[in-house]
């Protein structure tokens, strides 16, 4: 049988779902768990709208099978609550239409955890993984840097 | 969403993986080894790739090593390009790999997957071609260690049921001076026009190229010209005269433009390494 019942650790919760082995994690998160924060964009690993964190690293959930996520810690935008990068996005107005925002925030959140002293080269390298069609790139960069500098929003 | 179903297996040893492949094939399946799986997921979505039995090799310890043993650096085929980039045990490989796709995607794309990919860029192979790396391959005939230049001709010539386990690269190549540049049509992301990787070892240049032809290659004929005495222009002219064919001529760049870019890249490589 191609369908499997799997247990995932998502946003600190243990969730059991039945998926086709060929289902992407993006499809399972949205369709089986109702976590619609990860956005379907290109479905081809190019745009980054579906970015989540897996074991602390950014992952394009359209490029990962749900069955590959077993035993890993998955965090979607729904799993972040009032983090510094979320506050910085608001403060810097780092979005317009908002479709790319969950993916950008998840990538930035992981960047800040993995490289708390990230320089411009690392920031650029990481953020090239996501596309914002409203071109809010400058504001997004400002948001990341404000967290790196540990600025209080509004300060 | 993939328009087909498959069974999914996670063997824990090379022996189990090879036997599983053989068993599934005997059952009439089309098994596929899977590490990052990005190509199956993206090409499968548009019916350009298919498998009904996926064998995920990421739980096999030998496929995840990254360590020196004696004078050789061993890198497992199931390591992601990001893992290799973060650890940086082989700076030329790090630099070349860091230009593949984008940072997040490289967290899923693996070394073995890139080398064995259908997409013709396969840039991660360039440093290995230059460094005379050895490939550890396992299959129905057991474990073999093969010189990369004997098994990579345009693509990795794996037989059915064979799996790339590790690469082994001698330290002196890893420490050798190198030059690499990826030229795109525009901006810093997107598909490459040409990627060049060059290395100087024992006072000789080696050069490997991706994006010029529909396959990556190292050309010893071109290297022979580059290592001759004479003006830089003569040496580069000679190298360009013995390139493999065909030269790509597509939306990323005409054949003439690619050769123009390559000429300049060869010049930059020679200046950097002389």
From TrEMBL, chain A:
Pfam family for this entry, one: Fer2
Name used for this protein in its record: (2Fe-2S)-binding protein
Organism: Neobacillus kokaensis
InterPro entries for the chain: 2Fe-2S-bd (IPR002888), 2Fe-2S-bd_dom_sf (IPR036884), 2Fe-2S_ferredoxin-like_sf (IPR036010), 2Fe-2S_ferredoxin-type (IPR001041), 2Fe2S_fd_BS (IPR006058), Beta-grasp_dom_sf (IPR012675), Diverse_Oxidoreductases (IPR051452)
Xref: SUPFAM superfamilies: 2Fe-2S ferredoxin-like, CO dehydrogenase ISP C-domain like
The UniProt record lists the keyword Iron-sulfur: yes
Domain 2Fe-2S ferredoxin-type: 4-80
Keywords, in A-Z order: 2Fe-2S, Iron, Iron-sulfur, Metal-binding, Oxidoreductase
Gene3D superfamilies in UniProt: 3.10.20.30, [2Fe-2S]-binding domain (1.10.150.120)
From TrEMBL, chain B:
Gene3D superfamilies to which the protein is assigned, alphabetical: 3.30.465.10, CO dehydrogenase flavoprotein, C-terminal domain, Uridine Diphospho-n-acetylenolpyruvylglucosamine Reductase, domain 2
Entries under PROSITE patterns matching the protein: FAD_PCMH
Record-linked SMART domains: CO_deh_flav_C
UniProt domain FAD-binding PCMH-type: residue ranges: 1-176
Keyword set includes Oxidoreductase: yes
Keywords: FAD, Flavoprotein, Oxidoreductase
Superkingdom field: Bacteria
The UniProt record lists the keyword Transmembrane: no
Protein name per Swiss-Prot or TrEMBL: Xanthine dehydrogenase
Organism in which the protein naturally occurs: Neobacillus kokaensis
């Amino acid at each position: 049988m191609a369908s499997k019942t799997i247990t995932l650790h998502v946003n600190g919760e243990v969730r059991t779902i039945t998926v086709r082995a060929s289902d992407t994690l993006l499809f399972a998160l949205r369709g089986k768990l109702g976590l619609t924060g990860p956005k379907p964009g290109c479905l081809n690993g190019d745009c980054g709208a579906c970015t989540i964190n897996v074991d602390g690293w950014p992952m394009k959930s359209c490029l990962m099978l749900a069955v590959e996520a077993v035993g890993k810690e998955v965090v979607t935008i729904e799993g972040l609550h009032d983090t510094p990068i979320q506050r910085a996005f608001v403060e810097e107005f780092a979005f317009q239409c908002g479709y790319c925002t969950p993916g950008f925030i998840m990538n930035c959140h992981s960047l800040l955890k993995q490289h708390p002293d990230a320089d411009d080269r690392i920031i650029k390298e990481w953020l090239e993984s996501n596309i914002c069609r409203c071109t809010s790139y400058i504001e997004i960069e400002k948001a990341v840097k404000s967290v790196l500098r540990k600025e209080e929003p509004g300060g | 969403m993939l328009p087909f179903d498959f069974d999914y297996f996670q063997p824990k040893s090379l022996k189990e993986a090879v036997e599983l492949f053989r068993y599934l094939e005997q059952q009439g399946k089309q098994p596929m080894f899977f590490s990052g799986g990005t190509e199956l997921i993206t090409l499968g979505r548009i019916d350009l790739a298919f498998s009904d039995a996926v064998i995920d090799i990421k739980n096999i310890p030998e496929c995840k090593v990254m360590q020196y043993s004696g004078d050789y650096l061993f890198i497992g085929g199931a390591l992601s390009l990001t893992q290799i980039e973060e650890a940086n045990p082989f700076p030329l490989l790090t630099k070349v790999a860091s230009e593949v796709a984008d940072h997040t995607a490289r967290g899923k794309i693996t070394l073995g997957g890139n080398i064995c990919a259908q997409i013709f860029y396969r840039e991660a192979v360039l440093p290995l071609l230059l460094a005379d790396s050895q490939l550890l391959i396992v299959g129905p005939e057991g474990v073999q260690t093969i010189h990369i230049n004997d098994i990579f001709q345009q693509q990795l010539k794996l037989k059915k049921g064979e799996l790339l386990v590790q690469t082994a690269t001698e330290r002196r190549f890893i420490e050798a001076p190198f030059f690499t540049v990826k030229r795109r049509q525009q901006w810093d992301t997107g598909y490459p026009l040409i990627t060049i990787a060059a290395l100087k070892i024992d006072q000789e240049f080696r050069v490997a190229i991706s994006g010029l032809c529909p396959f990556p290659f190292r050309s010893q004929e071109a290297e022979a010209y580059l290592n001759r005495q004479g003006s830089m222009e003569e040496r580069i002219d000679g190298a360009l005269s013995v390139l493999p064919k065909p030269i790509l001529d597509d939306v990323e760049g005409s054949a003439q433009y690619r050769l123009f870019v390559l000429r300049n890249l060869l010049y930059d490589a020679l200046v950097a390494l002389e």
